Amino acid sequence: MSIADLRKEYMHASLSESDVAADPMTQFKKWFDEALAAKVPEANAMSLATVAANGRPSSRIVLIKDFDQRGFSWYTNYESRKGHELHQNQHAALLFHWIELERQVRIEGRVEPISAEENDAYFQSRPLGSRIGAIASSQSEPVASREVLETRYADAEAKHGAHPLRPAHWGGYRLIPDYLEFWQGRSSRLHDRIAFKLQADGSWARLRLQP
User: Which residues are catalytic?
Assistant: First the structure.
C-alpha cells in the first residue's frame, strides 16, 4: 500500500452552529474537557508555530499549562529558538489535534510574556528534576554529547540543591487569540469547520468555512 492510499473515514461526530458556544473560549473548554474525559493521550499537547524575522516558520509540540479568557499559556526557555522568534515576531499559531475524537482546534494571535510572579509560582510547582533541567540546559544550543549535558545537570543539581530559584531565562508566554477554528471530521471529507474572528469592538464573529 502506498502512502497515498492511507485513508480514514471520519464518522465520530458532527458540529453545527447550534452546537457551538457563543464564546470560543467556552467552546474550547468544552472540547478540552471532552478530550480529557475520553482519555486522549496527552490532550494538553499542542503544536506551536512561530516565524523568524526572515519569514522562515518553525513548529514544535509544547504542553499547554493554562487557559482562560486571557488566552493560552505555556512555559519554555526564553533564549530557545522559539523564544528568539517570538521576540522578533509576536504572532504565533497553536494547533490541538485530538485524533481519537476526530477534532482539531486552530488558534492564532499575539503572544506576550507572562508576569514574573506567575512564572515563579509555576516554576516552584514543577518536579525538582524539571527545575534543575531548566537551569542546566541552554535550550536549542548545540552540545558536544549527552555526557556533557548530564554533567551540566549534575553540576546544577549540586549547586542549587532541593530549592532552586527560577532562572531569568525561563518563563511563560500567553497567546492572546484573535482567531479560533473548530474542526470536526465528517464523512466524504465534508468536514465541519466553525471559525471565530475577533472584531474591533471585542465581539466574536462566527462563520462556517467550507472543508
Answer: 189
**Which residue has cell 518536579?**
127
Q: What is the pLDDT of residue 150?
A: 96
Is position 55 within any domain?
Answer: yes
CATH number at residue 181: 2.30.110.10
- Quote the domain boundaries for residue 180: 8-123+169-209
> Could you read off the pLDDT of 17-33 as tens digits, one per residue?
999 999 999 999 999 99
- Domain-located, residue 148: no
Contacts of 151 (CB under 8 A, 6+ apart): none
Count: domains in the chain: 1
Residue 169 CB-half CA count within 13 A: 15
Express the helix, strand and coil content of the chain in percent, nearest 5 each: 30, 35, 35
In 3D, which of 187, 193, 190, 196 has the Cα closest to residue 15? 193
The model's pLDDT over 111-154, given as tens digits with 9 standing for 90+, comes to: 999 999 999 999 999 999 999 999 999 999 999 999 999 999 99
**Whole-angstrom distance, CA of residue 7 vs CA of residue 188:** 11
Q: Is 58 strand, coil or helix?
A: strand
